[in-house]
Amino acid sequence: MKYKREGLFVFGLLVLMTFVLVWGFSGAPRLCGAQEKEKELPEREIAIYTEYTGVVIPSDKDEVSVDLIVANRGKSDEDVGLNFTTVPEGWKARIKTYSFDITGVHAKSDSTKTVTLKLEPGKEIKPAKYDFAIQGQSADGLLRSVARFSVTVKEKEEGEEKKSEGVKITTSYPVLRGPTDAKFEFSIEVESKVEKDTVYNLSAQGPQNWEINFKPAYEDKYFSSLRLKANQSQSMAVEVKPFPWEKPGEYPIVVKVSAPEAKGEATLTVVLTGTQKLDVGTASGLISLEAVRGEQSRVSFYVKNSGSAALTNVSFLSIKPENWKVEFKPEKFDVIEPQELKEVELSVTPAEQALVGDYSVGVNVEAGRVTKPLEFRVTVKASTAWGWIGVGIIALVVVGLVFLFVRLGRR
């Protein structure tokens, strides 16, 4: 019993030591690390810098947007004021977040904030390197940091035309895709860079026979001009209706915004996938025929591709009374091009046991996802041979009656 208690004591001691070792190698270092990290932070420190120290732009670029990062590396929160200390002549410079110009940010301890530098070259700016400086300063003026940034304007390549001057056109979705019979609506934003109220004329160049209109977003009225205040932006929609028979493909639409003081343009693209439409019928418009039991009758109908995309694997399916025979000639078409018309011969053979009367024979024309039904009324008549037999029987009856009257009349 004594040895048993000693064994339990030793086992418990080993478990305790194991727990202490595990905690020592895992929890304790992390706690110490956290404390050391907190001790490493200075009382107060700020820094501002750009993601890139310089960019190169073409001479027709009308705006440069760069992220400016404001970092608070100290223990206490800081209000950091921001301003440009160096702006080259002929340039406009702003500090923005979302749609507002700002003069400073509130940065919490050990965190960063990102804002946007908007740099706009004037019309007279020539190819060269332009340097900018942005200063960040704490509310009490004791902390300062300066970020330096450069923009290099390169020479315009030969044959390159300046497409924007004084007005900017942007869109989040410049390419829209859909069938030919769809209506496409692009959302664009027009931003005036002119320092006064300006009326802009709106125009668009697209494929022939296409309908293109400008309208307010989510409204069904059209306009052809737009009034913008100085440095104001306005969202609107460009509604595009393709020509109904246009072939599938990519079609560019050039939107132009112009005024005496400014002009700009943007290219939108419509990708047409085509429409698949199927028409069936007969040349005369009649969808009825006469047939005799056990005999074949024929009628022709047409299949027309009324869409703008080719129809492939066009096949035919019949819905007929029991024991009837229905055939198509040809049995299918591999392809029918847009606006192409094909003729099909339908053969109907009623069953030998079919009664005289009217029947329905349905035809389904199928081309992938496109299906078109056509229903024929079939009038079944008795065979002409039975008609002659009936005439013969009636004639025999008449002859017999005449013979009887003559014979009985002599008596």
Structure, described:
- The protein folds into three domains: 46-153, Sandwich (Immunoglobulin-like), CATH 2.60.40; 167-272, Immunoglobulins (Immunoglobulin-like), CATH 2.60.40.10; 278-385, Immunoglobulin-like, CATH 2.60.40.
- 16% of the residues lie in helices and 50% in strands.
- The chain has three helices and 28 strands.
- The protein has helices at 2-25, 27-40, 384-410; strands at residues 46-50, 54-57, 64-72, 78-86, 91-97, 100-101, 104-107, 111-121, 129-138, 144-153, 167-171, 175-178, 184-192, 198-205, 211-215, 225-228, 233-241, 249-258, 263-272, 278-281, 288-292, 297-305, 311-319, 325-329, 332-336, 341-349, 357-367, 370-381.
- Strands 1-3-8-5-6 form a five-stranded antiparallel sheet, with no helix packed on it.
- The longest helix has 27 residues, at 384-410.
- Mean pLDDT is 84; it is low at 25-37 and 158-162.
Descriptive keywords:
3 domains, Immunoglobulin-like, 411 residues, single chain, 3 helices, 50% strand
Radius of gyration: 44 Å
Strand content: over 45%
Low-pLDDT ranges:
25-37, 158-162
Helix fraction, binned, reads 10-25%
Number of helices: 3
Largest sheet composition: 5 strands, antiparallel
Please give the order of strands in the largest beta sheet. Answer: 1-3-8-5-6
Structural class: alpha+beta
* CATH class placement of the largest domain: Mainly Beta
Report the principal-axis shape: elongated
Rounded average pLDDT: 84
Distance between the termini: 152 Å
- CATH third-tier fold name of the largest domain: Immunoglobulin-like
Q: How many distinct domains? A: 3
Classified in CATH, the superfamily of the largest domain is Immunoglobulins
Q: What's the CATH architecture of the largest domain? A: Sandwich
Q: How many runs of DSSP E, i.e. beta strands? A: 28
